[in-house]
Design a protein that fits this description.
The protein has 510 residues and is α/β, with parallel strands linked by helices. It contains 19 helices and 16 strands. The chain has helices spanning 2-16, 21-29, 35-42, 102-118, 137-153, 173-176, 195-202, 208-212, 214-220, 231-244, 283-290, 335-350, 368-372, 375-388, 403-408, 432-439, 447-461, 465-469, 482-492; strands spanning 49-51, 74-81, 84-91, 122-128, 159-168, 180-184, 189-191, 226-228, 296-299, 307-314, 317-324, 355-361, 393-402, 418-421, 426-428, 475-476. The strands form 2 sheets. Strands 1, 2, 3, 4, 5, 6, 7 and 8 form an 8-stranded mixed beta sheet that branches. Strands 9, 10, 11, 12, 13, 14, 15 and 16 form an 8-stranded mixed beta sheet that branches. Helix 4 (102-118) links the parallel strand 3 (84-91) and strand 4 (122-128). Helix 4 (102-118) packs parallel to helix 5. The longest helix has 17 residues, at 102-118. The radius of gyration is 26 Å and the shape is elongated. The N and C termini lie far apart (62 Å). The relative contact order is 0.07. The mean pLDDT is 91.
Length: 510
């Protein structure tokens, strides 16, 4: 048996070296890790089990029959992250530039099937030039098999894509079908057609970074949910994200030991929101002082900054947070903010993660740019997402909730379970100035009358008591007790059961 063992060891050593020492060193010079180095950082030490190490492509054209490398440019397997099972694949740029072939796709598709059968998260590490041109339609068929499985797994298991190098052509659509996309600054980019093709077709001269780098996809296009400085930081943050997520749509949300007292009060919150409703404050301070140990994982931090989304824990259990940000555009809802929040709400609903909403919204952003850009339809996305969600929903109105934006932001009318307001909150069709100028337009020239009418309007409508009298608000709470009251509400809602009417699927205004 010894020769057989030796042959196995030699074949395994050949597979483990990927494209060879020189190409791995070239990766390092670019500031990038190899595929297996990345997996070693992501997965708990000693837990990774690899599949398909000896797979080779079957192509014969263009001299490919003489170029065969075990593994065929992708490493797949399963392991654990902080003790919880995950499936992972990593494209190996040192082997054929990480390009996708028929067998390369078969490996990924088989892993997708395993993840779905075993109800565990799937993480893809992308570093690839796209389809393997030498295989033609066989490579395109492989993409289709991967895409179909991305669709079937959507809403069943969490799917995370980490772009750690080039991601071009057909390769971009699999990440686009997953729940979250993260990138690495300066070394990763995503685009359907590269700079050379763009120049040839449109005569535009653009760099890879300006066409599809992190500054594009985290700020402008919203394709990416975040970006990190190095491979190491990105992989460690993915370990952190996995800790917030359930393994599947039938799994319990994670619960971790917390040293943060669920009854903790924060006196500083009593002075967080200025009395002057035109003055901004940072809603992230409220989130940080509400979640366990201030641990908040923000999603799409650089895009649509007038709304904040992300994960935190309350009483040791994961919750999703959506919050208007008064520091940016006064917290108004625009098209980008509506899309961002709607997608996040739908993810939370898919995986039974409770949603906590902090509201300070003066309405939807006015202007021709927004109207021409489809604000009505994009705003309706967020309305639809909240109205469809069956998970526990706890809402806190911190200062103002005006117009249709009041309804949209997880109001009682969209099946909000527990809705609180701070004492200084105002809930109305619009702010006092605009309302008085419409109602009392005949008095506009009289400064004293307008001032008096404004005071009357503020006293009558810009308080939470009108809504509370109609039971649109469950209670008016002191800001310092926000954490305690929200945790108690979520504890009460832990066994909530709510089903929507049967349907094949709804028709969200895309």
């Amino acid at each position: 048996m010894k020769p057989i063992f030796e042959r196995l060891a030699a074949r395994r050593a050949r597979a483990l070296e990927g494209g060879g020492t020189e190409r791995i060193e070239a990766q390092h010079r670019r500031g990038k890790l190899s595929a297996r180095e990345r997996i070693a950082l992501l997965i708990d030490e000693g837990s990774f089990e690899e599949f398909g190490m000896f797979v080779e492509h079957r192509a014969r054209d263009f001299g490919m029959d003489k170029r065969r490398v075990p593994g065929d440019g992708v490493v797949i397997g399963w392991g654990t992250v902080n003790g919880r099972g995950v499936f992972v694949f990593a494209k190996d740029f040192t082997v054929f530039g990480g390009s996708l072939s028929e067998t390369h796709a078969q490996k990924i598709a088989s892993l997708q099937d395993m993840a779905l059968k075993n109800r565990a998260p799937l993480i893809g590490l992308f570093d690839s030039g796209g389809a393997r041109i030498q295989e033609g339609v066989a490579a395109l068929a492989g993409y289709g098999e991967v895409f179909q499985r991305n669709v079937l797994a959507s809403g069943v298991i969490p799917q995370i894509s980490l772009i750690m190098g080039p991601c071009a052509g057909g390769d971009v659509y699999s990440p686009a079908l997953t729940d979250f996309i993260f990138m690495v600054k300066d070394t990763s980019y995503m685009f359907v057609t590269g700079p050379d093709v763009v120049r040839a077709v449109t005569n535009e001269i653009v760099s890879a970074e300006d066409l599809g780098g992190t500054s594009v996809h985290t700020v402008k296009s919203s394709i990416a949910d975040g970006a990190y400085d190095t491979d190491v930081e990105a992989l460690l943050q993915m370990r952190r994200l996995i800790d917030f997520l359930p393994s599947s749509n039938t799994s319990e949300i994670p619960e971790w030991p917390s040293f943060d007292d669920p009854e903790r009060c924060e006196a500083s919150l009593d002075s967080l929101a200025p009395d002057d409703q035109t003055k901004p404050y940072d809603i992230k301070e409220l989130i940080a002082k509400t979640v366990d140990e201030g641990d908040f994982f923000e999603i799409q931090e650089a895009h649509a900054r007038n709304i904040v989304t992300g994960f935190g824990r309350l009483g040791g259990r994961t919750a999703g947070f959506v919050a208007n940000q008064p520091m940016v555009l006064a917290g108004t809802l625009d098209s980008a903010a509506s899309r961002k929040a709607a997608r996040f709400v739908r993810f939370c609903d898919c995986f039974n993660i409770p949603i906590v909403t902090f509201v300070d919204v003066p309405g939807f952003l006015p202007g021709t740019e927004q109207e021409y850009g489809g604000l009505i339809k994009h705003g309706a996305k967020l309305l639809y997402a909240y109205g469809e969600a069956t998970v526990p929903k706890v809402t806190v109105i911190t200062r103002k909730a005006f117009g249709g934006a009041y309804d949209v932001m997880a109001s009682k009318h969209l099946r909000g379970d527990v809705n609180f307001a701070w004492p200084g909150a105002g809930i109305a069709v619009m702010g006092a100035k605009g309302a008085v100028e419409i109602i009392f337009r005949s008095d506009i020239g009289d400064t004293d009358k307008i001032a008096e009418r404004t005071r009357e309007y503020e006293e009558r409508f810009l308080t939470p008591f009108v809504a509370a009298e109609r039971f649109y608000i469950d209670d008016i709470i002191m800001p310092h007790e926000t954490r305690k009251r929200v945790i108690r509400a979520l504890t009460m809602l832990r066994n909530k059961a709510l089903q929507n009417p049967w349907k094949k699927h709804g028709n969200i205004p895309l």
